[in-house]
Write a structure and sequence with these properties.
Among the domains are: 241-425, Serine Threonine Protein Phosphatase 5, Tetratricopeptide repeat, CATH 1.25.40; 439-544 and 585-591 and 758-795 and 833-864 and 910-949 and 970-995, Cysteine proteinases (Cathepsin B, Chain A), CATH 3.90.70.10. With 1041 residues, the protein is an alpha+beta fold. The relative contact order is 0.07. The strands form five sheets. Strands 5, 10, 13, 14, 15, 16, 17 and 18 form an eight-stranded mixed β-sheet that branches. Strands 4-3-9-6 form a four-stranded antiparallel β-sheet, with no helix packed on it. A two-stranded parallel ribbon has the order 1-2. 45% of the residues lie in helices and 10% in strands. α10 (162-176) runs parallel beside α12 (213-224) and α20 packs across α22 (410-420). It contains 35 helices and 18 strands. Keywords: Hydrolase.
């Protein structure tokens, strides 16, 4: 029969005739044949299968072999034995090479035919050894895929025990050698199919024997981390990633990133090649593992690797966005790489030239998937342009291309950036490793205490959080200038863009420290603030004069001593600035005007003066001075009032004075007995002649103040402001020298704010000078801080010739001036001309301690802009003024109280920040309100309120124009370069520190107090006593924190 079949298949008969005869041969398999005839038939069919000249011969061989093996199984079992199979695998078949896929197919079919025979067990044992040998020979993808098919059907052929680990490792190495040089789609699809079969085999082995997984992954890493230039591992290794359990990510990444045997060069190679895997189609979770490794490296602070890899591969990842199959993974990796690379715009700017083409291409195809992708890409682009503003030439084409897509809110952008930075505390892998020293979750930068410099740190943070002021400072063009404003701009830029957790303001401290401030000693933050604003103001005026005199020369700014500033400023003040264009930045942002009016009670002659101010010092009403840090009363100093209010800079030895309550009470009593004062001159009435009765304008200090236990009341800032503006009777030692009477006379002094500042600075006079003990005592009374403050401003259009002069501060507490505040109607009030200007609380500087000589300063702050108010307070101010007057008459809650309550409820959910030197945490307005009740030594000292305008007339730039992308102006190149350089230096420092810690990890232990909310310990705590002032006079003076 074998001779007939052999002759038939090689004959020239028609193919249909051959098929009929073959069918007859197959049917004859049912008949009995002796062993020799069977072996001859098996030998012939094997030859036809392996060496057939055409598909027909190979097909005939398969059909006849299967038929005869089925009916003559013992004979086939004898033929298909270990020796025959071994010879096929090691020597091939006649002219057929042993690595030909036909041999594996033949063995695969033979195993199926003898599966029920006992001898198959011997073949399984043989194949367990042979498949390991074959894999070690690095077979081609096609042969390896056929081997995978065989082992998938006959798992008994897979090596067992330790050999299974070796087999998996060798199979991984084999995959790493796979290559496909063809560019034809059919061949590429076939190649992908072959690789998929091999990876599926590995997955099945890992599931059956979990012990093989970790060694296999170690082999994967060894392949992709190889630095051998002659070997480039195949991208086909990406097919294995989808089979690795995701729950192993943390363990594996931690193991890799903390292994001291893994060199940086190897890790860099491994990460680059993993990023290359993004081009492998159908592979899942590649992006997940790439991002996990990036985060793992950031967690151990190996920033050099991250920088090198990002700059090397960012364009490749961006180019993968063009391909639909790998686009989702590529976008995820691109987003993480860009958002985490926050120390420099270099990575983002590498892809900027390609963004517009990509956007236009996807917009034109109109597919829903393309639109959804562009929405995600647009959000990423907005985040990066927000973080790296200052390149309008690069960004304007992109803004035009993406203008039709939604722009994320500033809050969302900040949240995304804060969570994505390499130094972010929200890094998901950082909790498993040592704690990072990067920015806190707030995204804000702290200021390092340089030795009792908390007074400066708290003030600087409050000024930085004054959004409009910060933007104006950052927008100044100060190139080539070495002024104090330039140093402030440098400091603000670093606070906004540094990657450091806290910045050391050494240069600015040395430049801004008042000469009489002893280094490393505690000082008064209010005094420092006044000096700083005055320096900035006077310096700008001097620079203007210099630039006007040297218009053709390059402006050269140098450090100016206080004496030079004072002498030059004296000349400049002879020609005061009146228009907004002539005002300095400090005048525009913090400058207001106060009018003092004095009326002689004898002859009714009047004198008045208008002075500028940058902050108002609010004294406590004498009746409320009960909670003092010292109870011994000091004798009140005597002084004469100079007739007109003088706004002067206090000398280093001068301090605000709060006077003896007993004396104050006596004077108040004597004043109250005078029931009426003569009518004011007619020229002070408003032209409309719509003034309300005097009683409607009575100022009640304690009106509407919440009650304490025991019947006492808590004064509010509004009460202190009303007390400050209340009429004062000048009598006794404070009598006024009347030029008309040519003698000292009793007089009434009133003060009115005639021009309100953009930022209202209020200082609560908590420190009084005790002449007996020669120390400054502290008033520990709690003060209620309104979120909304309505500042009464007198709108006058004309009055007599006034002398105006600039002053840093108007301190009206000199020599008993606040002793005789008279809470009674004044004949000089102009109620009908008063406009209530709404202000929102922006920041609070808190002093912790019981003495100005020691203690600690910290600040609460939030971002408030000119147009933030959503309650249309600016449009309702006139109505509020009238309603406020009526509410005083009727004894009801004022509209401002209702608005404040509404705002307060809404502001609870907004972000407030607590700046405590290097530490910055989230907090709430409730914490700000309750600080003194919770921690009695911690009291509000300096307050910043922001005026609410319907439009901001100060800014000449439109934030929506594309120039100020994030609301803040773009940084000048000099500043950006300095920040980028420092950020790189910081990352290098972090990496060196991390490596040093890793070397000592076995013996060192680390403990830390995590950042959190401020609800546990006093925010002012700098040590075990909290607040720094707990020691009172027993502590060493001017403690260092």
């Amino acid at each position: 029969m074998d001779k007939i079949l052999e002759g038939l298949v090689s004959s020239s008969h028609p193919l249909p005739l051959k098929r009929v005869i073959v069918r007859k041969v197959v049917e004859s398999a049912e008949h009995w044949l002796d062993k020799a005839q069977c072996e001859a038939m098996f030998d012939l069919t094997t030859r036809l299968i392996l060496e057939g000249q055409d598909p027909f011969q190979r097909q005939v061989g398969h059909q006849v072999l299967e038929a005869y093996a089925r009916y003559h199984r013992p004979e086939f079992e004898s033929f298909f034995n270990k020796t025959f199979v071994l010879s096929l695998l090691q020597q091939g078949y006649h002219s057929l090479d042993r690595k030909d896929v036909a041999i594996l197919d033949y063995i695969h079919n033979g195993l199926k035919l003898i599966m029920s025979c006992p001898s198959v067990l011997d073949l399984f044992s043989l194949l367990q050894v042979e498949v390991l040998r074959m894999v070690c020979e690095r077979p081609e993808p096609q042969l390896c895929a056929r081997l995978s098919d065989l082992l998938t059907d006959f798992v008994q052929c897979i090596p067992k025990g330790k050999l299974s680990i070796t087999f998996c490792q060798q199979l991984v190495r084999t995959i790493s050698h796979f290559q496909c040089v063809s560019t034809q789609e059919r061949e590429l699809r076939e190649y992908v199919s072959q690789v998929t079969k091999v990876s599926n085999l590995l997955q099945n082995i890992w599931k059956a024997e979990p012990a093989t997984l970790l060694p296999s992954l170690q082999e994967v890493f060894a392949s992709i981390s190889s630095t051998d230039a002659s070997f480039e591992p195949s991208v086909a290794l990406a097919s294995l990633v989808q089979h690795i359990p995701l729950q192993m990510i943390t363990v594996l990444i931690r193991s890799l990133t903390t292994d001291p045997n893994v060199k940086d060069a190897s890790m860099t190679q491994a990460l680059c090649r993993m990023i290359d895997w993004l081009s492998w189609p159908l592979a899942q979770h590649v992006d997940t593992w790439v991002i996990a490794l990036l985060k793992g490296l950031a967690a151990v602070q190996k920033f050099t690797i991250l920088i090198d890899v990002t700059l090397l591969k960012i364009e490749l990842v961006f180019n993968r966005l063009w391909f639909p199959l790998v686009r989702p993974g590529a976008l995820a990796v691109l987003s993480h790489m860009l958002l985490s690379f926050q120390h420099s715009p270099e990575a983002f700017h590498l892809i900027v030239p390609h963004v517009v083409n990509l956007v236009h291409s996807f917009k034109s195809d109109g597919l829903p998937s393309s639109t959804a992708f562009l929405v995600q890409l647009t959000e990423l682009i907005h985040c990066m342009m927000y973080h790296y503003s200052g390149f309008p030439d690069l960004y304007e084409p992109i803004l035009e291309a993406i203008k039709d897509f939604p722009k994320p809110s500033e809050e969302k952008i900040k949240l995304i950036l804060n969570q994505s930075a390499w130094t972010s505390q929200s890094n998901s892998l950082a909790s498993c490793l040592s704690r990072l020293s990067g920015k806190s979750e707030t995204g804000k930068t702290g200021l390092i205490n340089l030795g009792n410099t908390c007074y400066m740190n708290s003030v600087i943070q409050a000024l930085f959080m004054a959004t409009d002021f910060r933007r104006q400072v950052l927008s100044l063009n100060l190139n080539g200038c070495n002024s104090l404003m330039k140093k402030l701009q440098h400091l603000f830029a670093f606070l906004a863009h540094t990657q450091r957790e806290a910045y050391a303001p050494r240069i600015f401290f040395e430049a801004s420290r008042p000469p009489w401030f002893t280094p490393r000693s505690q000082q008064d933050c209010s005094e420092y603030l006044r000096f700083l604003l005055d320096r900035l103001h006077e310096e700008e005026k001097i620079l203007r004069v210099q630039s006007s005199h040297k218009a053709s020369e390059i402006l050269e700014c140098s450090e100016t001593s206080l004496q030079e500033v004072t002498s030059k400023a004296a000349v400049l003040t002879e020609t005061p600035c009146t228009s907004d264009g002539e005002k300095t930045l400090i005048e525009k942002m913090f400058g207001g005007k106060l009018r003092t009016h004095i009326c002689c009670l004898n002859c009714r002659s009047t004198s008045q003066k208008v002075e500028a101010f940058t902050d108002l010092s609010l004294a406590f009403c004498p009746s409320s001075l009960e909670n003092m840090s010292f109870q011994d009363t000091a004798s009140s100093p005597n002084a004469q009032d100079g007739g007109l209010m003088q706004a002067t800079i206090p000398s280093p030895s001068e301090e605000p004075v709060v006077y003896n309550p007993t004396t104050a009470a006596f004077i108040c009593d004597s004043v109250v007995n005078e029931r009426t004062i003569g009518s004011p001159p007619d020229e002070f009435y408003c032209s409309e002649n719509t003034s309300v009765p005097n009683e409607s304008n009575k100022i009640l200090v304690n009106k509407g103040v919440p009650q304490k236990t025991g019947g006492e009341t808590t004064p509010s800032v509004t009460d202190l402001l009303n007390y400050f503006l209340a009429p004062e009777i000048l009598t006794g030692d404070n009598q006024y020298y009347c030029g008309n009477c040519a003698s000292l006379q009793n007089a009434e002094k009133t003060m009115q704010i005639t021009e309100e500042p953009e930022y209202l600075i209020l200082t609560l006079l908590r420190f009084s000078y005790d002449q007996k003990y020669h120390v400054r005592r502290k008033i520990l009374d709690n003060v209620s801080l309104p979120l909304v403050l309505e500042l009464p401003v007198k709108r006058t259009t004309s009055f007599s010739s006034l002398s105006e002069s600039w002053s840093v501060d108007v301190d009206f507490t000199d020599i008993s001036e606040n002793l005789a505040k008279k809470l009674k109607p004044s004949g000089t009030d102009e109620a009908s001309c008063t406009k209530l200007v709404p202000y929102l609380l922006s920041s609070v500087v808190v002093h912790s301690g019981i003495s100005s000589e020691s203690g600690h300063y910290y600040s609460y702050a939030r971002n408030v802009t000119s147009t933030e108010s959503s309650y249309q307070m600016c449009h309702q101010s006139e109505a509020l003024a009238l309603a406020s007057s009526q509410s005083h008459l009727l004894g009801r809650d004022s509209p401002s109280a209702i608005i404040e309550q509404d705002l307060e409820n809404k502001e609870m959910s907004k972000e407030w920040f607590l700046f405590n030197d290097s530490r910055v945490t989230f907090t709430s307005f409730q914490s700000v309100q309750k600080i003194t009740s919770r921690f009695p030594k911690d009291t509000a000292y300096v307050l910043l309120y922001k005026k609410q305008n319907s439009t901001n007339g100060l800014s000449g730039n439109n934030p929506t124009s594309g120039l100020w992308i994030n609301g803040d102006p773009p940084l000048q190149k000099e500043l950006m370069d300095a920040i980028t350089k420092d950020n790189k230096l910081y990352l290098q420092e972090q990496e060196l520190n991390a490596r040093a810690r890793a070397l000592q990890a076995s013996s060192a232990s680390c403990s830390f107090r995590p950042n959190g909310f401020d609800d546990n310990d006093p925010p002012g705590s700098c040590g075990p006593t909290g607040g720094g002032g707990g020691g009172g006079f027993n502590t060493v003076g001017r403690l260092v924190f």
